[in-house]
């Protein structure tokens, strides 16, 4: 198969490296773990990306999650255009904040009070601050390979880009900052129980991606989330669900609806911005009332509740709620995972695939993946070759073996069939 031309992407990447660290604004985009030249994208169209060289790709990144309706859906682009004509930022409240907050609360009733921020990182950082203030404790538990943004205290055993690049856990972060961050393996009840027996009176919160997405797609073991709910309640700690990635994707009501486990605080992002930068954290009213101006815990942001992001998120959620968009996206995820498994089996390549709602993932492993240690045994060299073969066949996967993949309602059966043929051909060529 003839390789695609990347002349303009190569030129842009060369120029960008003189302007930005690594030539990118977020590390994983630099293609360090898969090799080759990152594609510079000119536009998105439904399920496709089109790069500056005119190459078209079936997109399974979808901006790492927010584009549940695909690229440039009419409802969202219209809402953004209409709002832009009224102004892009006010530094004051707008009715859109109220509308979007009511919409989110209707889907996530556990978020009795919520606040908009500008990213998942801000939301996680603020959720920890609220938990520490509420409990009067300092220690926070997170799971190996789970990613909660790049706030200093949470860059300990992080997944995603940190795992991809093989970087130290938190370079540039003083040891004292992460001294109260306790890291345990995902899905390991015995270790969590032992930790609480030793440190329970000092633990303010447990942060968890209820379904891991930043070390690849990894489900919780049956009963694990319920166990976290029970042990945090028993020790007076808060349970924080980071649903930035899985929210609205694994289930229309999020992971907490899927598993029937209610956290004290939830962190959201991605989908609620419809493709624009946004985040939100919220939970029990008694916890959230500690945040200024109701209480003494300070957190603020000039662009928080930005009207463009509010309009985009509101349009996306309303469209998704009034249509079968989520089911179409979920069907596409399942069908794509099945196509990958079939292609790998035919080629004799060991692979572990899974799909939950409108997310899917695969590991080039012989054994099932249950935590970061088992995820890290994935054949990264083969993934790099596969990634290149798929690019040449018009399929764009995350440029890392430690990322989940996403589908949208625009990934029709015809699009999935096109991708399935590319997977079959690529695995056969490994």
Could you give a quick summary of the protein structure above?
By secondary structure, this protein is α/β, with parallel strands linked by helices. It is 38% helix and 14% strand. The protein has helices at residues 7-16, 74-84, 95-107, 120-135, 160-165, 175-178, 189-199, 224-234, 254-259, 285-288, 307-321, 325-347, 372-375, 380-392, 413-429; strands at residues 41-45, 48-51, 56-59, 113-117, 139-143, 181-184, 203-208, 238-242, 265-269, 279-283, 352-356, 359-363, 395-396, 405-406.
Could you walk me through the main structural features you see in this protein, from its secondary elements to its overall organization?
The chain is of the alpha/beta class and 430 residues long. It folds into two domains: 7-60 and 324-429, Aspartate Aminotransferase, domain 1; 74-321, 3-Layer(aba) Sandwich (Aspartate Aminotransferase, domain 2). Helix content is 38%, strand content 14%. The strands form three sheets. A seven-stranded mixed sheet has the order 4-10-9-8-7-5-6, sandwiched between helices. A four-stranded mixed sheet has the order 1-2-3-13. The longest helix has 23 residues, at 325-347. Mean pLDDT is 94; it is low at 160-168.
């Amino acid at each position: 198969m003839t390789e695609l031309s990347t002349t303009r992407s190569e030129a842009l990447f060369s120029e960008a490296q003189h302007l930005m660290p690594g030539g990118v604004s977020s590390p994983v985009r630099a293609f360090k773990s898969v090799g080759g030249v990152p594609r510079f994208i000119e536009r998105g169209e439904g399920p496709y990306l089109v790069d500056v060289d005119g190459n078209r790709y079936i997109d399974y990144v979808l901006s790492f999650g927010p584009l549940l309706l695909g690229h440039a859906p009419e409802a969202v682009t219209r809402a953004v255009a209409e709002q832009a004509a009224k102004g892009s930022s006010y530094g004051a409240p707008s009715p859109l904040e109220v509308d979007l907050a009511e919409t989110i609360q209707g889907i996530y009733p556990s978020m009795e009070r919520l606040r908009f921020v500008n990213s998942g990182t801000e939301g996680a950082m603020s959720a920890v601050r609220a938990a520490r203030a509420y409990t009067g404790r300092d220690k926070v538990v997170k799971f190996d390979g789970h990613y909660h943004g790049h706030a200093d205290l949470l860059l300990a055993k992080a997944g995603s880009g940190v795992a991809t690049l093989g970087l130290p856990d938190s370079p540039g972060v003083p040891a004292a900052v992460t001294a109260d961050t306790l890291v345990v393996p995902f899905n390991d009840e015995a270790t969590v129980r032992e930790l609480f027996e030793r440190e329970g009176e000092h633990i303010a919160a447990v942060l968890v991606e209820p379904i891991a997405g930043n070390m690849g797609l990894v489900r919780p073991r049956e009963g694990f989330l319920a166990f976290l709910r029970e042990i945090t309640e028993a020790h007076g700690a808060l349970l924080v669900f980071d649903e930035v990635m899985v929210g609205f994707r694994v289930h229309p009501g999020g992971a907490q609806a899927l598993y029937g486990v209610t956290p004290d605080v939830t962190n959201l992002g991605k989908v609620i911005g419809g493709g624009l930068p946004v985040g939100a954290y919220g939970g029990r009213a008694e916890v959230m009332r500690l945040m200024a101006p109701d209480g003494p815990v300070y957190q603020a942001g000039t662009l928080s509740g930005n009207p463009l992001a509010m309009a985009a998120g509101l349009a996306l959620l309303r469209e998704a709620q009034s249509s079968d968009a989520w089911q179409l996206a979920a069907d596409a995820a399942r069908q794509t995972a099945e196509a990958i498994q079939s292609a790998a089996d035919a080629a004799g390549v060991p692979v572990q695939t899974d799909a939950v709602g409108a997310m899917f993932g695969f590991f080039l492993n012989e054994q099932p993946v249950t935590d970061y240690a088992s995820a890290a045994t994935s054949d990264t060299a083969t993934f790099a070759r596969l990634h290149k073969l798929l690019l040449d066949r018009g399929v764009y996967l995350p440029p890392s073996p430690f990322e989940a993949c996403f589908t949208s309602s625009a990934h029709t059966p015809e699009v999935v069939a096109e991708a399935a043929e590319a997977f079959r051909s690529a695995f056969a060529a490994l």
